[in-house]
Amino acid sequence: MSFKPLFEREIKAVLKNPGFLITLIIIPLFYVSLGSIMNIGVRSAVSQVSGYVGVVDRDDTPLSHLFVYYLNLTLDGRVRYANGTGGLGSYTTIILIPRGFQEMALNNSANISTLTKLESLSLVSLGALPPLALQGSFNDALRYALTSFTLGKKIEIGNASLNTSIQLVYQGRVLDYGSVNTFVGYGVLSTFIIGIMMSFTAGFATSASAMEKAEKAFELLLSQPVGRSRIVLAKIAASVVAAFIVGLVFFASLFFSIMHATAFTGGQALASGGAEELSRPQVNLGGSIAFTAVIVFLGSLISGSLGVVIGGVVSDERTAGILVTPIVMIFFGFTIIAEFIGLGLDALSAVLSGLTVTPLPLLLSESNIVGDYSFFYLALTLSVVELAILIVVAIRLYNSETVITGLQLRKKSPPAFSS
Question: Could you tell me where the DSSP H helices lie in 176-270?
Answer without folding.
Answer: 177-214, 218-222, 228-261
